[in-house]
Amino acid sequence: MSIVYLIIPCYNEEEVLPETSKRLLEKIGSLIKEGLISSKSRIVFVNDGSKDKTWEMITQLSKEHDEISGIKLAHNRGHQNALLAGLMTVREHCDCAISLDADLQDDINAIDEFVKKYHEGCDVVYGVRNSREKDSFFKRSTALGFYKLMKVLGVECVYNHADYRLMSKRALDALSEYKEVNLFLRGIVPLIGFRSDYVYYYRNERFAGESKYPFKKMLAFALEGITSFSVKPLRIISTLGVVISMLSVLGLLYAIISKLFGSTVPGWTAIVASIWLLGGIQLFCLGVCGEYIGKIYSEIKGRPRFLIETFLNKE
Predict the structure, then answer these.
(1) Any idea of the CA torsion for 121, 122, 123, 125, to the nearest 10 degrees?
(2) Which of 172, 207, 269, 270 has the fewest beta carbons closer than 10 A?
(3) What is the pLDDT of residue 187?
(4) What does the pLDDT read at residue 160?
């Protein structure tokens, strides 16, 4: 039977941890009883520098239950790095790992299908939402726009998939070869290329606590994905520069012809408007270029993506 590890990144999750651990213990127990997974399977909570009692609760749960382990990062590194830390730490101890959030929005009953598809030979199984009916109109529209934009920019992404997925040990080993500091796992995992499949589920409301992804973080995450996987924005800038240059030549010809025919009129408004327009475009272009330069700077430094302070190993 396969050894399955559940990886759950946590940041200030003291309100949901009791219920999350209870439900996951029941789920892993039922899977062991059915003979789908090994009794050596574990639930691993990754504490991403929480400021509340999350780590104390994980430590206590680990003492009370042999099935629960914990990883404490030395510093808050963000959801993607915390998830990667968990996956990379357990890949030598398991046959496959399933990542999910601590807020119980991901339907844990889908884990059964994840494991079955793994036994059928899939190295990667994506959890995909059936619909976004529970989302607000704004969130639904922005999510749809994000996936469409990623597709236009040539980024391979699974529509309506977050980070609820199963990865085999072989897939995890392949993931370890990707060394970039600017992490966007939803874009990296499809690049691995092993056999994959989908499991569809209905996403629940958050059980308790507050979302760790307000609009500001969602926007930053979207920009991370776009700039980490596509250089098309830079090409768009180049195209924009060519178009503006051509329009400028046409404008110059118009000005010369108007001067020759004596029909020029002092155009203060037009001049000011054009200066503001071109100035705004230039600043926008500099901002996009700066975003890419910043990423190059982060990658060149080669700093560790995470540092583990404590690993409560229950092997």
Answers:
(1) -150
(2) 269
(3) 83
(4) 81
- pLDDT at res. 1: 80
Residue for token digits 């989302």? 135
pLDDT at 119: 95
Triad 23, 27, 32: Cα angle to 5° = 150
pLDDT of residue 174: 93
Q: How far apart are CA 58 and CA 312, in angstroms?
A: 9
DSSP string, the chain: -B-EEEEEEESS-TTTHHHHHHHHHHHHHHHHHTTSB-TT-EEEEEE-S-SSSHHHHHHHHHHH-TTEEEEEESS---HHHHHHHHHHHHTTT-SEEEE--TTS-S-GGGHHHHHHHHHTT-SEEEEEES--TTS-HHHHHHHHHHHHHHHHTT----TTEEEEEEEEHHHHHHHTT---SS--HHHHHHHH-S-EEEEEEPPPPPSSS--S--HHHHHHHHHHHHHHH--HHHHHHHHHHHHHHHHHHHHHHHHHHHHHTT-----HHHHHHHHHHHHHHHHHHHHHHHHHHHHHHHHHHT--S--EEEEE---
Distance separating alpha carbons of residues 134 and 136, to the nearest angstrom: 7
> 4-214+303-312 in CATH: which number?
3.90.550.10
Question: Given the structure tokens 């004596």, which residue do they identify?
Answer: 262
Tell me which residue has tokens 């690993």.
311
CA angle 218, 222, 227 (to 5 degrees): 150
Q: Which residues of the chain have pLDDT under 50?
A: 268
pLDDT at 104: 87
The CA distance from 191 to 199, in Å, is 19
Structural tokens at position 179: 């060394």
